Amino acid sequence: FAGEIRIDKPNDKGDGEIQFRGRHVMKGYYKNPEATAETMDGDWLKSGDLGRVDEDGFVYVTGRLKEIYVSSAGKNIAPLVIEETMKSIPIISQCMLVGDNRKFCSALFTLDVGAILRDKHGLDGATEVPKDPNEQIAKLESLGSKLSDYTASSEIKAELDAQVQELNQKFSSPEQVKKFTILPRDLNVDEGELTPTLKIRRKQINENWAREIEAMYSD
Q1: pTM for this structure?
Q2: Which of 14, 89, 145, 204 is most buried per CB count within 10 Å?
Q3: Domain 69-215, CATH homologous superfamily name and number
Q4: CATH fold of 4-67, please?
C-alpha cells in the first residue's frame, strides 16, 4: 500500500472513519467544491467506512458511517457489528438492531427455518433440508409444525435470551441488546425489507414493523 491510512475521530474502542492519502488519491472534484468537501478532509480521502487499525497494522472494517446510530444519551453505536454477532446464533436468520435516538438497543430477529428443520427435527442439513425458503416452510408443515410454533414459543425465546445475554458480553452496556422481538416471518425482498443482494433496508423494516418496535419501548 503506497500511501497513508488513518482513523479519524476514533471512539473508546478505536473505531473511527478510515481515511487515506497518497499519490493515488484524487485532490477533489473538478469545479465542484461541495462534493470535494463531502469526500475530502484536506488531502485525506473519506472512505465512509468505520473501522480500526490494530497494533500490527491490520485494518478492520466494522461498519458504515451512514449506518451509525446515536442513542438518546449521545452514544455512537455501529449496528452492523452487533447484528452480525447476533446472527452467529444458529436459529437466527436475520437481525436488525434498533437504537437510533433510543434509550437502549433492541433487536428484531427472524428464525432460520433450515436450522429449525436441522436442529429441532433432526433432519440432515446436507441432504434433507431444502435450500429454497418456501420449500423449507412446506417441509416444516409436512412434519406437522408451523413457523408460528417457533416464533411464538416461550421456549425458543428463553433459548435466544440466554444466547443474547452471552453475546452481549462482547459489547459495552449501551451497545447491548436489552430486548428483542421474534418476527412471525423472515424479512424478504417482496416487502422491500431486503435488497436484491439480501442486505437489510432499515427504513422499510422500521415502517413495516413499527408496532413491534414501539412495543419494546412502551414500558
Answers
A1: 0.75
A2: 89
A3: ANL, C-terminal domain (3.30.300.30)
A4: Luciferase; domain 3 (2.30.38)
